[in-house]
Amino acid sequence: MSESSLNHHITTHEHQSRLQRGTVLAVASIAQFMVVLDATIINVALPQMRAALHISASGQQWVINAYALTLAGFLMLGGRAADVFGRRRVFIVGLATLPFSASSAGSPRPARS
């Protein structure tokens, strides 16, 4: 193998490595944005929840705490699932199911009579 072809191979490998790292960074950033967006939605909805459910300020804090505890529990569950099934597979499944679960949770419910 000549020196120029070896340098070309190394340069191509470095480019692919940088591209892959950039892709991983972009996907991880999007996932983090989704988590922050979800927490923001909870905080924006608190005034409407307080009015509709007649909860106190301490009750609102419990809503935030319950969300944080649930998130922490699912993060631990997701970490263990990633150990068992593979990190990439669990990450992709999580990203694919989040929009469907969020939209079903936010869909209007039929009025009770």
Tell me about this structure.
There is one protein chain. This protein has helices spanning 3-53, 57-85, 87-106. It is built from three helices and no strands. The mean pLDDT is 83. Helix 1 packs antiparallel against helix 2 and helix 2 runs antiparallel to helix 3 (87-106). The radius of gyration is 22 Å and the shape is elongated. It has 113 residues and is mainly alpha-helical. It has a domain at 29-105.
Radius of gyration (CA) equals: 22 Å
Largest sheet: none
Give the topology string: H per helix, E per strand. HHH
Q: Percent helix among the residues?
A: over 70%
Question: Beta-strand level of the residues, as a percent range?
Answer: under 5%
Given as residue ranges, the uncertain stretches (5+ residues, pLDDT < 50) are none
Q: How many individual β-strands?
A: 0
Structural class: mainly alpha
**Based on the structure, what is the oligomeric state of the protein chains?**
single chain
Termini distance? 80 Å
The overall average pLDDT, rounded, is 83
The tally of helices reads 3
Query: Which descriptor suits the 3D outline?
Result: elongated
List the helices and strands and how they pair.
Elements: H1 3-53, H2 57-85, H3 87-106
